[in-house]
Amino acid sequence: MRLKLVCPSCHAPDPTQEEDAWRCLRCGMIFDPPMVLCPACGGVNLSENDSCTACGRSLTLVDQVLDRHTGGRTPSFLTSARDQAPALKESEQLSSDARYQGFAEIDRRREETQAAQEVERRKADRALVIFGIALGSIVLAGACLLGLVLSG
C-alpha cells in the first residue's frame, strides 16, 4: 500500500521525492514527513496513520500498551466497541441529518413568515399612500370651492 503524503503547508496531495526530502508541486515547500515504524512488521508509516499500511496493526500507543499486556490479543470490550463503532457513526450521521433537516424547516418557515410580513407591510404602506392622496385631493377640492365661493 502506498503512503499518502500531503504537503504540511498547503495540504496538496502527492508531493515528489527529491534526494532526502519531499517537494510540494503546488507551493514548492521542501519537507521531511514525520514517520514511524510499525512495531509488528517494521513497515514505514506516516506518524498520523492509525494503522500500519503494510500489515494493518494499530500504531496508537494505547493499542501497543494493550498488546504488550494482553499478549497481542485484543480485549473483548475493545473488540465489541470497535465492532459497534460503524453502526454508532451511522446512527450519529442520521441524527445529525435529522437535526439539520429540522433546522432547515425552521429556517424555511421563518423566511415564509418574513415574506408574508413584508407583503402585509407593503399593503399597509400602499393603503396609507392612497389615503394621503385622497385626503389631499379632498382638501384641495375644498380649498378650490372655498375660493370660488369667496370670489363670487
Overview of the structural elements:
This protein is mainly alpha-helical and 152 residues long. The chain has two domains: 59 residues, no CATH class; 78 residues. 57% of the residues lie in helices and 9% in strands. The strands form two sheets. The chain has a three-stranded antiparallel β-sheet with strand order 1-2-3, with no helix packed on it. Strand 2 and strand 3 form a beta hairpin. It is elongated and about 120 Å long. It starts with 15 loop residues before the first strand and ends with a helix. The mean pLDDT is 84.
Keywords:
two-stranded antiparallel ribbon; 152 residues; mainly alpha
| Sheet with most strands | 3 strands, antiparallel
Portion in helices: 55-70%
Derived structural class: mainly alpha
Percentage of residues in DSSP E strands: 5-15%
Number of distinct beta strands: 5
**Backbone shape:** elongated
Taking Cα atoms only, what radius of gyration do you get, to the nearest Å? 37 Å
The SSE order reads EEEEEHH
Domain count, please report it. Answer: 2
Q: How many H/I helical runs?
A: 2
Low-confidence stretches: none
Walk across the major sheet and give the strand order.
1-2-3
Compute the separation of the termini in Å: 109 Å
Summed over residues and divided by their number, the pLDDT gives a mean of 84
Topology summary:
Blueprint: E1 16-18, E2 21-23, E3 30-31, E4 35-37, E5 44-46, H1 61-70, H2 76-151
Antiparallel strand pairs: 1-2, 2-3, 4-5
